[in-house]
Amino acid sequence: MDTAALHFKLALLALSLLFLPSLQATYFQYCDTEANYVAKVSGIDISPNPVVRGKPATFNISASTGKAISGGKAVIDVYYFGVHIHQEIHPLCEETSCPIAVGNFVLSHNQVLPGFTPPGSYTLRMNLFGDGDSITCISFGFKIVLGTSGSSVSNI
Ligand SMILES: *[C@@H]1O[C@H](CO)[C@@H](O)[C@H](O)[C@H]1NC(C)=O
Fold first, then answer.
1. Banded model confidence at residue 12, pLDDT cuts 50, 70, 90
2. Where is the signal peptide, in residue numbers (predicted)?
């Protein structure tokens, strides 16, 4: 490797370390890794991140669909350290604007988890159905921390 390439790599490394703490990318996986879902997820935005206990949180899922979807439902399951603790079913059109045209869309899910929810590592599984079939299903981890009376969040 020549020195220019090396310097470039080091610069990239420094840059990525710089951005790492603020990036907070949320990694997801498809429920069925073999499935060829109609909608492909490109990203997840959780706000606030981490989620504060007893406070509303927004989960924005960016996705792209290969077929137009007129309506359906979103089945949300929440797991705490792998144990199923909560399920909600919402009309799809409550979480995004319908009909969903071919192309990109954002699904915005608002969630208030009960105040007694212990802080820790959670998994949210979101299965979206349009006209009967699952159009996509993903799961991803998120954290719940204790809210303090001030604005800062410190636990874990
Ligand atoms: C989530 O998506 C909604 C609707 O597109 C938008 O208004 C909101 O600002 C987004 N929130 C975050 C945290 O990205």
1. low
2. 1-25
Judge whether residue 101 has pLDDT over 50: yes
Query: Between the CA of residue 23 and those of 6, 122, 130, 135, what are the distances in Å?
Result: 25, 19, 32, 28
Q: Which atom of ligand 1 is nearest to the CA of 46?
A: 13
Q: How far apart are CA 16 and CA 12, in angstroms?
A: 6
The ligand 1 atom at the shortest distance from the C-alpha of residue 58 is 13
Q: What angle do CA 87, 121, 48 make, to 5 degrees?
A: 80
pLDDT given at position 135: 96
Q: What pLDDT digit, counting tens, does each position of 117-141 carry? A: 888 999 999 999 998 889 999 999 9
Report whether residue 121 contacts ligand 1, using a CB cutoff of 6 Å. Answer: no
Q: Would the CB of 77 count as within 6 Å of ligand 1? A: no
Catalogue all structural domains in the chain, each as residue range(s) with its CATH number: 25-154 (2.60.40.770)
Q: pTM (2 decimals)?
A: 0.78
Query: In this structure, how many other beta carbons lie within 10 angstroms of the beta carbon of residue 97?
Result: 12
108 lines ligand 1 (CB under 6 A): yes
Report the b/e string of 68-82 with b at 16+ CB within 10 A: ebeebbbbbbbbbee
